[in-house]
Design brief:
Blueprint (H helix, E strand, L loop, with lengths): L5 E7 L8 E6 L2 E7 L4 H15 L7 H11 L5 E9 L2 E7 L3 E5 L4 E3 L6 H7 L25 E5 L4 E4 L1 H4 L4 H10 L3 H11 L6 E7 L11 E2 L5
Antiparallel strand pairs: 1-10, 2-3, 2-11, 3-4, 4-5, 5-8, 6-7, 6-9, 9-10
Helix pairs in contact: 1-2, 5-6
Length: 225
């Protein structure tokens, strides 16, 4: 029997008024969205984008998933990463500063490049200020298809994170939690909070062979009233 995909997700609201992160999944595809802003409109944008992205059949490719998210979000905005299974691994699409990592049981390898002002200036050999890390250059509502980030990996285990996780934990710290924690998704968001994260922190851990037949639930996160 083929090994089946297992997944865990966890989220921590931090010091925000609402949790504007969302994770959705369908047919082996998983998407993580991070709303831009700290209100219910941002949270709704993230949930709509994640749901729309995973509703696209994996055969359509991640660019089609990002385009579906763009069509679905008409108010507010968010950043998004989507991982679609195929026979050789996963195809990844993203906009903004959410991330996907390949996990081989020992080390993490980042698959995405942040679409931020800070990364733009780094790529051009310029100095970066802390504020630039939080200014995204692409988003679900603003990015044309020519600006989508697209890649693929033969890895069968992935980590998806919002910036409330990866801005506060090093790759080595995240890898240690993936190796050692009984529930690594929960351990990652808890560790980010202990490291000082005030932002929403969300992680999704996918392990095992991706299967288009695997039924996975949608995971909206509760928001404050």
């Amino acid at each position: 029997m083929e090994p089946r995909q297992a997944w865990r997700t966890a989220s921590r609201q931090g010091g925000r008024a609402v949790n504007a992160d969302a994770v959705a999944s369908c047919g082996g595809t998983v998407a993580l969205a991070d709303g831009i802003g700290d209100d219910i409109t941002a949270a709704n944008a993230a949930l709509l984008a994640a749901n729309a992205a995973v509703g696209v059949p994996a055969a359509g490719g991640p660019a089609s998933a990002l385009a579906a998210a763009h069509e679905a979000v008409t108010a507010g905005d968010c950043v998004l990463v989507v991982a679609q299974p195929f026979e050789g691994g996963y195809r990844i699409g993203w906009v903004g500063d959410v991330r996907a990592y390949a996990w081989d049981g020992t080390t993490l390898r980042r698959l995405t490049t942040d679409h931020t002002l800070a990364q733009y200036f780094r790529d051009h050999g310029e100095d970066v200020t802390p504020r630039m890390e939080h200014l995204v250059t692409t988003s679900v509502r603003t990015a044309p298809a020519s600006r989508y980030g697209l890649t693929e990996t033969s890895a069968t285990s992935l980590l998806l994170t919002s910036d409330g996780v990866h801005r506060y934990l090093t790759d080595e710290e995240m890898a240690a939690l993936l190796r050692e924690a009984p529930n690594p998704a929960d351990a990652l968001v808890r560790a980010a909070g202990e490291a000082g994260a005030r932002d929403n922190a969300t992680a999704a851990v996918l392990a095992g062979a991706p299967s288009p037949a695997t039924p996975l639930p949608t995971r909206p996160f509760p928001v404050a009233a």
